[in-house]
Amino acid sequence: MDILKLIESVPDYMNESADNIIIFQSIKYYRNLEGLNFTSKLSADDLKEIKKKILNNVTSLPLWENNYKIIESEQAPQELLLILYERGIAGQETIQTRNSTLIFGDDERFILRIGERDHLKFIVNSEFNQLDEMVQESQIYIGILDKILRFAYKEGLGYLTSSPRYLGHALNFSAMCHIPAIFALGQIQAFSQILQKYLIVLAGIMDSSLQTYGAFVQLKITSFLDTVEEVKNKMKSALDEIRDLENQMRNIISLERPIEIEDRIYKSYAILQNSKLLNIAEAFENLSNLRLGVELGYIKEIHPSFFDKVFFRILPNHIRVFYAVQEDDLTKEAEMRALLVQELLEKYYYAG
Amino acid sequence: MICQKCNQREAEILYTEYVEGILLTTNLCRICAEEAANGVREMPEEEMEPADKTAKCPKCGLSLVEFRMSLQLGCPNCYDYFSPFFKEVLSRVVHRSSFSGERINPDRFLLYIESEILKLNDKLKELKDREEFKEAIKVRDKIRKLESIKKWISSN
Fold it and tell me: Which residues in chain B are closer than 8 Å to A139, comparing Cβ atoms?
């Protein structure tokens, strides 16, 4: 697999025209084959058999139209796994145990992880304006997989997963949001109330990390004995409320604090254009301010797709692998990140 | 699993007793378990806690202590074995102890797929008329994909 090409590519679901606040969203289904122990209680041979059975059945599905990649984590180079982890294709368990098999298409919309804590994790990524389509389509595929593979299921509990918190339709919904105005005006309490109301948890940029950067946060909700529709509706309501709150705060910023916000945006723009070193926290914080500047119309010369292009590329492993930077050389990593951002700013500069 | 006492009937109960401070667990059939308990009857299933912290799921060997530490179960059978414990936890967290949905059946999406194909065909025509061929290719591919899903569902 061409790692450099993968690093340079932008997943299909990152689409600048979709939404200003919800950057992308994912749905993850957790499934286990009927009558078999979960992965932690399986022998290596049994796990091998399960992988074989799933692979034999899923690769012929209309899911990827014969355009997919299979990565055996056991044999894959560590650098590739780290890139896949940062893009949400591999999970943390894949990196730690190197036991799982990954299947995904070039567009990174559909991903299958086989052999993590549950036998199968099916992930669908999409733009926010396609929420309903994503939910319908994902149910069709997971339903087809159930017909072929027959998943462990119990009336009254739903699909049986290694963790009881996924009971029900056994899924997890997540959305990557950009909420700079809520952060800028310190509206954390109002934001937390929305999260509490819908039992939503806050996560970082990468799949299972808690580290957030700039005003980019990932929101997650799990099924907890709910159906797909129930989870979708909760997430939809929560995202609508968060979007309303963020838009209200953006209006307040524009009307009541235009000088402050303009100062913040242009300072960030100057830092991104001129700095020699950019650590990841600085990069995301300044990109967050710049993105707000573009969305509020202060900065007109940057094409919005710049933000999609830069999002994954500035993550630590993307930088290290692409520029062959040693893992402990944080200065070199910061230098390369600054150069990359400037190169992309130049590339995505347009007359408006 | 066969009853460890009579070696004839299917074991249904994990029988646990303390003998001189040592915990002993045996897989017994109902009849042998009643005899061993000397007339003490089993608790109703709803009230039943796994017999002891060291008791293990008879299928995968996961203990309650392991489960509490990792919050991970070992097999589908653990859901029966540890049911009183995690149902209580779930009802405390989400105020609900059962799921009212059903298995996801792709057949029920056939109508949706058909209407999507119709919608996309209209969109494809519009795009072709406007000579937006790049977008048209994407829509055409989506139609093909939906048609292959429809075909797959119909033939299965």
Answer: 104, 106, 109
